Amino acid sequence: MLIAGFESIDELKYLIKIEIPGIFIGSWIANEPKVYEIIRESNYKGIIATDNEGGYASWIVKDIPSPKELSNLNPYDFYSIIYNMALKLKEHYINLNFAPVLDLYDPINVVIGKKNRAFSEDPYKVIFYSSLFIKAHSDVGIKNCIKHFVGQGRAIGDPHHKKSIFIGGLKDLRKDLLPFMFFIKMGIEYIMTAHVFVPSIDKEKPITLSRFFIVELLRNLLSYKGKIITDDLNMNAIREHFDIIDAVRIAKSLTIDYILISRGIETIEKVYKFLKFNY
Fold first, then answer.
1. Which of 39, 108, 142, 250 might form a disulfide with 137, Cβ 3.0–4.6 angstroms?
2. What's the structural domain count of the chain?
């Protein structure tokens, strides 16, 4: 199934008209009041998702401290801030937040660490504050998608722009896996994958498209039964190495449930038609 973003009101109307399974509200359109008016009037029943992590990645509810800053608060203040944020998301009809980030903090990482998108370098602190983050959303009726499995926080490079690589093997990823293992045991419903290459394990494919990471590790070894969502397949880490339809075909063969395309209506239509007539 497809979760698609849009760059105009007309594109949003079109996605609703064709009954796309999910819509994504990105930073470039989140401040347009007409978006939420149309969602309300259409009575759209699919997934309505956004990124609202706090700090840098807060597309709808602004002025929230970053996860790194939030992790310095006491639990009561942390919960209060995230609960009020979730309430505002609910008012904007969001039913799935692509957050919290379970990646481990490393100041060298350009996409997570340097933007303070991770709670901590300590996986147990990540688990603690992510649990509060998820509870606050659950208490207002919003679901969460944890990300980025197996871990983006200690990788080199930004997958939005180029190849992102983790130097090390599975043993080195044990620390990164701990938060994901915890929430899998707790029954989390949605997990988003990382577009990170781990050459020591899979020389050809990033985690998102790797049979080892998605099928053997996540589905089989960790016994994850919930929904898997790709990170945006429009990122250069994917597009520079794979044709978009080939990437979608691989993802679906790995039991990935949702393909995320954040923007680009021509690409969205191409993927939508492929999924509609091939699955």
1. 142
2. 1
Domain span at residue 28?
2-278
* Active-site residue flag, 106: no
Residue 35: partners with Cβ closer than 8 Å, 6 or more residues away: 9, 12, 25, 29
Percent of the chain with pLDDT over 90: 87
Q: Are 114 and 154 in contact (CB under 8 A)?
A: no
Res 154 pLDDT > 90: no
- Which amino acid does the sequence have at 239? R
Q: What is the CATH number of the domain that holds 186?
A: 3.20.20.300
The CB density around residue 225, as the number of other CB atoms within 10 Å, is: 9
The per-residue pLDDT for 160 is 66
Q: Is 176 a catalytic residue?
A: no
Whether the per-residue pLDDT at 10 is higher than 80: the answer is: yes
Query: Which pLDDT score, from 0 to 100, does residue 196 have?
Result: 93
* Catalytic hit among 160, 172, 241, 257: 160
Mean pLDDT on 142-166: 83
Q: Residues 51, 103, 158, 231: which is the catalytic one?
A: 231
Beta strands in the chain (DSSP E): 2-5, 22-25, 47-50, 52-54, 57-58, 96-97, 143-149, 164-165, 190-193, 196-197, 227-229, 259-261
Tokens of 107: 């100041």
Other CB atoms closer than 10 Å to residue 137's CB: what's the count? Answer: 26
**What predicted TM-score, i.e. pTM, was given to this entire model?**
0.95
Instruction: Go through the chain and tell me how many residues it has.
Output: 279
